[in-house]
């Protein structure tokens, strides 16, 4: 929930099975334990986990001036593979939103 990175729990070796999520939804379960849940239970848990992660990020954004520099700092510790693309898009958005004063 900290970096919004994507993990495919149905692909062996694509995630650290020992990683333990401490969010209120996962309640200290490891990714291996979550992957072993029945599909319906796993999907429900992951939907709630993802919702919480997005809510946390929106709350953080509401408290900070969100711009390309902020995002770069925020995403620096992320394991996401699309950081460069995100920052490029944010830069384009900032350019479009600048007023011609």
Write the topology of this structure.
Elements: H1 31-36, H2 39-62, H3 68-75, H4 83-97
Strand content: under 5%
Radius of gyration: 17 Å
Strand count, sense and barrel status of the largest sheet are: none
Contiguous runs where pLDDT drops below 50 for at least 5 residues: none
How many runs of DSSP E, i.e. beta strands?
Answer: 0
Q: Would you tell me the overall average pLDDT?
A: 82
Oligomer: single chain
Number of helices: 4
The H-and-E topology, N to C, reads as: HHHH
Distance between the termini: 40 Å
The rough form would be described as: elongated
- Global structural class: mainly alpha
Proportion of residues in helical segments? 40-55%
Features:
mainly alpha, 0% strand, elongated
Overview of the structural elements:
The protein is mainly α and 101 residues long. 52% of the residues lie in helices and 0% in strands. The mean pLDDT is 82.
Short structural summary:
Helix content is 52%, strand content 0%. It has 101 residues and is mainly alpha-helical.
């Amino acid at each position: 929930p900290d970096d919004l990175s994507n993990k495919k729990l149905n692909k062996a070796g694509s995630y650290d099975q020992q990683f333990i999520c401490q969010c209120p939804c996962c309640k200290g379960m490891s990714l291996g334990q979550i992957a072993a849940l029945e599909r319906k239970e796993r999907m429900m848990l992951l939907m709630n986990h993802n919702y919480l992660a997005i809510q946390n990020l929106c709350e953080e954004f509401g408290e900070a001036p969100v711009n390309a520099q902020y995002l770069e700092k925020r995403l620096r510790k992320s394991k996401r593979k699309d950081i460069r693309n995100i920052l490029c898009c944010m830069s384009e958005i900032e350019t479009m939103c600048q007023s011609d004063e």
